[in-house]
Design goal:
The protein is about 35% helix and about 15% strand. By secondary structure, it is of the alpha/beta class.
């Protein structure tokens, strides 16, 4: 892997309408420095097929990017916004004191994504107890990330690809201690600082976010259930992606405009 330096051209594309990158948007130019002393300057391929088409892995899609540079590409193409994700609809919160635990669970807005298919009770329990004692502290863990849900039962429903355990801990903390002021505040305020990925974000990108956000925590990384889901997701992506028409805006996982906001 060569050392990569961005020479010019980094801007976010969510500031621009349409499915195709405008011709006047600066392309990313990088300098590759190899161990044998060779240097090479290239323009990064940001065609529609490369950004939105199926790929077996992130390293295949963006071969020269990893770490912070890869996240810059995510910000450029896939992340829609940084925002505060509500845990329940506002109108439900108004009736919260009258609802049973089972009723509350039907109205959850921050759900675990299948791409983040893990169940680690110790982490969830520790987050729950921490929230009950100190409130929600998102600064104590890696970046929370969600993916838009197309045609969900509520416009604010998202799926978590990072921080699912702390979110589930917040839900369980309130269910266990509904009068706890920290729990009440957490439920009312929601989860701050969440990166929302567009719903058309390819599965290999989502899987990379899951792995990256659990790399340095207590989680087990990429478990067997996630590997099965990853392979099934790739198969589905290739089925709905006719190679004969890579510029069509309606081919990404059956969705619509991948540049829509």
């Amino acid at each position: 892997m060569p050392f990569v330096t961005i020479v010019e051209g980094f801007e976010r594309t969510d500031l621009y309408p349409g499915t195709q990158m405008p011709s006047d948007l600066p392309r990313i130019v990088v300098k590759l420095q190899y161990q044998d002393g060779r240097e090479e300057t290239i323009t990064v391929d940001e065609s529609w097929a490369t950004v939105w088409g199926p790929a077996a892995s992130v390293s295949q899609r963006w071969p020269y990017f990893e770490g912070n540079l890869l996240w810059m590409m995510y910000l450029r193409h896939y992340i829609k916004e940084e925002y505060t994700q509500p845990l329940y609809p506002n109108d439900v919160l108004e009736k919260f004191s009258e609802m049973s635990v089972d009723e509350k669970r039907k109205w959850r807005l921050f759900l675990r994504s299948k791409r983040n298919n893990r169940n680690e009770n110790n982490s969830r329990e520790e987050y729950k107890v921490s929230i009950q004692k100190e409130g929600l502290n998102m600064q104590g863990r890696s970046q929370a990330c969600s993916v838009e849900v197309l045609l969900g039962w509520h416009a604010q429903v998202v799926e978590s690809i990072a921080a699912a355990h702390i979110v589930e801990g917040a839900y369980e903390a309130e269910e266990e201690q509904p009068q706890n002021a920290y729990c009440v505040a957490t439920i009312q305020r929601g989860v701050p600082g969440v990166y929302k990925f567009k719903h058309q974000t390819p599965t290999d990108i989502q899987d990379n976010v899951v792995q990256n956000q659990n790399k340095y925590g207590k989680s087990s990384g990429f478990n067997p259930e996630q590997m099965i889901d990853h392979v099934q997701g790739l198969s589905k992506d290739w089925v709905v992606y006719p190679a004969s028409n890579i510029n069509s805006i309606s081919l990404v996982r059956g969705s619509g405009n991948p540049r829509s906001s």
